[in-house]
Amino acid sequence: MAALIDKPDQNTTANLAADLKRRLVDHFDVLKRPNDLVRVTQISQHQFRVNTLALKIDADAVLRTYHIVMSRFLYVEDRDGELVITDQTRH
Asked: Containing domain of residue 23, as a range?
């Protein structure tokens, strides 16, 4: 008879961090203006950088260009199923 050994799942923390990022993207996607882009970069398990980019329209432009209108450093955690966001941006 084989014995079962409980090992902590290594992907659990990665899955939790990916879930936080997905929820953060969904949160800021609702708050942005229609033509803006939101870029979320994960720095550590709970720390994120969120850039909001706006379309820059030039008369002679060949390609679309965007410029950063807001940049934030956030600490994000899940408390009892609720997303708690703390702004850590220095002003």
From this structure: 12-87
